[in-house]
Design a protein that fits this description.
Blueprint: E1 2-7, E2 10-18, E3 24-27, E4 33-41, E5 45-50, E6 53-61, E7 69-74, E8 77-83, H1 86-92, E9 102-104, E10 109-114, E11 121-122, E12 127-133, E13 136-141, E14 146-151, E15 158-159, E16 164-170
Antiparallel strand pairs: 1-2, 1-8, 2-3, 3-4, 4-5, 5-6, 6-7, 7-8, 9-16, 10-12, 10-15, 11-14, 12-13, 14-16
């Protein structure tokens, strides 16, 4: 799984790969690799074990509908991260003002839920597909209000990073 986040004006990339012994090989933004175990605690904290060291990190998510923002507490400070899923970046357009409605998988995983069907009218930032990897859920949102033109996956499908999941077309006159 590879995820890209924004922290202030910096872009950080974090990679994680499941190891046969149940640990995760994590590649940090500075290139350092660590083999760790991680588990979510019931009170919105994450426990990370790195050898003999144990870190318990508070975690909060942004309000409903904008589930890609996470705040992590570390050593008395709070850091707000915003996930940059490939589908979201593609939807923003690249300088020309054009907007793509092709939603892509933010990571390698399995489709946990498909929340829209072809022909559905959707609101901007409405969750359309949920991808799961290593007990992490990534919600893929509509980049703008529109109509679902195609859904390319079903629950249980294995997807690759960047694979097309669905397509949304802007509605004529829809607020974007």
């Amino acid at each position: 799984m590879k995820a890209t986040y924004r922290l202030d004006d910096r872009t950080l990339t974090l990679e994680a790969e499941a190891l046969p012994d149940g640990r995760l090989r994590v590649t940090l933004p500075n290139g350092e690799e660590r083999a760790v175990t991680a588990r979510r605690l019931p009170d919105d904290r994450i426990e990370v074990r790195d050898g003999d060291r144990v870190f318990v990190v508070p975690l909060t998510r942004a309000g409903s509908g904008r589930g890609n923002a996470v705040t992590v507490g570390w050593e008395g400070a709070a850091y707000a991260f915003t996930a940059e899923a490939p589908g979201r970046r593609a939807a923003d357009g690249a300088g020309s003002g054009a907007r793509s409605g092709t939603l892509t998988a933010p990571m390698v995983g399995v489709v946990a839920e498909v929340l829209a069907a072809k022909g559905d009218r959707v609101a901007a930032h409405q969750n359309l597909v949920v991808v799961e990897a290593m007990k992490v859920l990534a919600r893929v949102e509509a980049p703008f209000a529109g109509v679902v033109r195609a859904v390319h996956v079903r629950p249980g499908d294995r997807v690759e990073h960047g694979q097309a999941l669905a397509e949304v077309e802007p509605e004529t006159g829809a607020a974007q």
